Amino acid sequence: MSDVILHHYDLSPFSEKIRLALGYKGLAWRSVKVEAVPPRPQLDALTGGYRRVPVMQIGADIYCDTQVIFRALERVQPEPTLYPTGEGISKALSQWWDRSTWKPAIGVLVDHIGEHLPEEFIKDRRDHYLGYDISKEAMAPMLPVYVQQMTAFSEWLESILAENGPYLTGDRLSVADLTCYHSLWLLRANCGAETIDAQLKLSATIIAWMDRIAAIGHGSVTDMTPEEALAVAANATPADSFAADADPSGLKLGTRVTVTPDDNAKVPVEGVLVAADAQEVVIARDHAETGTIHIHFPRAGFETLAAEGSAAQTAA
């Protein structure tokens, strides 16, 4: 197997989920640091313009979004599993937490450190990523609401832990833990743990749970340049074992499609459909710097549609 390569930046909370997953599975991996604000030309060559981070690469297979990265890591190394009680509860908790807490977490974050965020970062997130102004001044009027929401959701986590044990789905860590950890990690790492613990009234139960997750660490990491990652793709052929012809909407393999996030950073990636089931879709693309690559996306949170003018759009 080719090396696991993660394209990420240090303060990306979504990247922290994957760094911890790699540590939990005991995988050695290569780290490619990218800028928090595009352009990222080498990464664009691998992803077809998908602009969110992290992105995982194994040879000429590219994985976009943490959902599909987790699924790929399960294929690479099934144990220890990230889904000890099955995928359903972990994915449902993860989708809820990501969608419900992201804006309030940003609101609390910028109240503490907003004056230090570069103007280009704020402009990028407003115009090309989130669609709303995350400057300290713009978010300040709703700060009480953001604190209310984060406090309420954190109490839900405490209730789940009280029922299930040391982790959200039981005795063993799952994807749900890594996901629900990441935005609280972002706040505590940037604003001060004691400050956030007091502001959001985080209980001793929540803090101990976060300490258990942090103790996992990131595993064995070696740096790699973006140029080296491109060369890896160029010298490889797609080799992931995932193969399915079961698109739930009837899209045929061989159809040219677009895949687009449905919440933010809505940049469509176009390619030829080469595998699909109810949870994952894979498209093939060719690029002068990489040759043929396969790009993997999850189905939940993404829209896969036949590209305009594509023939044979769906099965009869």
Global mean pLDDT: 96
Multimeric status of the protein: single chain
Helix content: 40-55%
Q: Kindly report how far apart the N and C termini lie.
A: 38 Å
Q: Could you tell me the radius of gyration in angstroms?
A: 20 Å
H-E string: EHEHEEHHHHHHHHEHEEEEE
Report strand order across the widest sheet: 5-2-1-3-4-9-8-7-6-10
CATH class of the largest domain: Alpha Beta
CATH topology of the largest domain: Glutaredoxin
| DSSP strand content | 15-25%
Give the overall silhouette: globular
Total beta strands: 10
Largest sheet: 10 strands, mixed
CATH architecture of the largest domain: 3-Layer(aba) Sandwich
What features would you describe in this structure?
The chain has 316 residues and is α/β, with parallel strands linked by helices. It has 2 domains: 163 residues, Glutaredoxin (3-Layer(aba) Sandwich); 128 residues, Glutathione S-transferase Yfyf (Class Pi), Chain A, domain 2 (Up-down Bundle). 44% of the residues lie in helices and 18% in strands. It contains 11 helices and 10 strands. A 10-stranded mixed β-sheet has the order 5-2-1-3-4-9-8-7-6-10, with helices on both faces. A hairpin with a 7-residue loop joins strand 6 and strand 7. The radius of gyration is 20 Å and the shape is globular. The two termini are 38 Å apart. This is Glutathione S-transferase family protein. Pfam families: GST_C_3, GST_N_3.
Defining key terms:
ten-stranded mixed β-sheet; 44% helix; 316 residues; Glutaredoxin; 11 helices; Glutathione S-transferase Yfyf (Class Pi), Chain A, domain 2; 2 domains; alpha/beta; 18% strand
